[in-house]
Amino acid sequence: MTLSTIKKGPFEGQKPGTSGLRKKTRVFMEPGYLECFVQSTFNAIGGVAGKSLVIGGDGRFYNDKAIQIILKMAAANGAALAVVGQGGLLSTPAVSHLIRKRKTDGGLILSASHNPGGIDEDFGIKYNVANGGPAPESVTARMFDETLKITEYRTIDAPDIALGDLGLHQIGEMQVEIIDPVADYAALMETLFDFGKIKALFAGGFMMRFDAMHAVTGPYAKAILEDRLGAPAGTVINAVPSEDFGGGHPDPNPVWAKALMEEMMSPTAPDFGAASDGDGDRNMIVGRGSYVTPSDSLAVLAANAHLAPAYEAGLAGVARSMPTSAASDLVAQKLGINSFETPTGWKFFGNLLDAGKVTLCGEESAGTGSDHVREKDGLWAVLLWLNILAQRKQSVADILVDHWAEYGRNYYSRHDYEAVPTEAANALMAHLEAQFDSLPGTQWSGLSVRAADSFSYHDPVDGSVSENQGLRISFEGGARAVLRLSGTGTEGATLRVYLEQYAGPDADNSLTAEAALASVRAAVIEITAMQSHIGRTAPDVRT
Ligand code: G16
């Protein structure tokens, strides 16, 4: 085996976004592209000599090749151990758990999450630190700096590792341990929830459908829901991970999980439906005839978490990303616990979790999680819902109605405008920002603006400040709109418009979200001069 140093780099545009580096797969396949990013990551963390890493991905096209490349580079850089999921598979929450359990120095996750996979679709890589969470901004900034100055990377000339063979392997001086991707994660879930109660629920005829969307959660969901909890065979559908996710978007929302939504809205719907994304960290929850928005899901979980063994003693607090609805704040207020508002990106929850300030976190982008790992966790959210359903013995719809009757309802929807030319999207945002001083007090579509600003986050744990984290307009009467540009897309800009309207416990809580949000939506379209900036006012995706 020969060590070599290959002259290459730098490559433009290797700036990590909301969740690592995401690009078209063919970009990652350019000779040296992945290698330079990985070497830059190693350089940014002071090298990997003597260190241990967890490595795995969601099984999308190029996953296995990328893992072979990374293993050889880690060996050439002196790493001591790589823990790798069998077949190169590991869900994002499973990586987070393994980093913590095995006390490794960090991990690398190969995934572009909910983005489609394939040679002409998307690929991605993310570095997680020793607490199991995504690298914080201070680390991603160092990584980016390294990508700007890199001129060479190190690798080793060695045969590929048989990723399917469990057990110990060797590359140069580095050990590679291939592990069952599901076992440790499933064991962790068993410590958090009342598996006996959930088992009894299924034994009593409770029916569920879980759509794994041809992505990484399939094997985890089958092992936990069907094998351990006794859900009938066939409960988990699309359970075999495929490298192009069966040609679909592994994005658990009503648009991309359409077949599941149709089944759940039909007269023969099962009691409970759920879906997860490419790398298993997102979730969608839907009851018979009743879709639960991710913001409401976080609030319901916070209000009922004490029904599951892990959270029996109560929660330290709840954190949500700024664009997520304020529904969970109302629960925190009632429980008398902390609530925090962070920028979009799971990495911002890490400090709050590590400091014990919060127990649950969630985002409007279908992410919910707790202090059991440092990533959002799709299957965990599904199991917590199941545990709550097993205890409350009510339907999802009834739980929601009760929740709104107690706390009021935060009507909520996110509208995405995809593949907008970057300049047009920037111009729209600049146009809005330029009006901040003059907007308060003005009327738009019957709503009066109360305040408008750009969100900055002051991390209460390490004091760091993150600016420009989204533009907010709040209106008198409980309406709010947030606009930001996505940090996870790979083509042009994706403009996200987040709409919210609060209706108190005594108000009409039975409207459709579309009807309840019509005024705030119209106001945003007007204030931003949307038609003239981006040439349309109808979004591509509404969640
Ligand atoms: C990532 C982040 C989330 C974020 C989401 C959307 O999720 O981890 O925190 O909410 O992207 O981000 P954006 O609005 O910038 O596209 P994932 O599941 O894609 O890793």
From TrEMBL:
Spell out the reaction equation it catalyses: alpha-D-glucose 1-phosphate = alpha-D-glucose 6-phosphate
User: What does the record give as EC number?
Assistant: 5.4.2.2
Which cofactors are named for this entry?
Answer: Mg(2+)
* Leader sequence segment: none
- For whether the record's keyword set contains Zinc-finger, the answer is no
Q: What InterPro entries does UniProt report for this protein, alphabetically? A: A-D-PHexomutase_a/b/a-I (IPR005844), A-D-PHexomutase_a/b/a-I/II/III (IPR016055), A-D-PHexomutase_a/b/a-II (IPR005845), A-D-PHexomutase_a/b/a-III (IPR005846), A-D-PHexomutase_C_sf (IPR036900), A-D-PHexomutase_CS (IPR016066), Alpha-D-phosphohexomutase_SF (IPR005841), PGM (IPR045244)
Query: Does the record carry Lipid metabolism as a key word?
Result: no
Domain Alpha-D-phosphohexomutase alpha/beta/alpha positions: 14-153, 185-286, 295-407
The UniProt GO MF terms for this protein read: magnesium ion binding; phosphoglucomutase activity
The UniProt entry, under SUPFAM superfamilies, shows:
Phosphoglucomutase, C-terminal domain, Phosphoglucomutase, first 3 domains
Its family remark reads: Belongs to the phosphohexose mutase family.
Protein name as catalogued? phosphoglucomutase (alpha-D-glucose-1,6-bisphosphate-dependent)
Q: Which organism is it from?
A: Roseobacter denitrificans (strain ATCC 33942 / OCh 114)
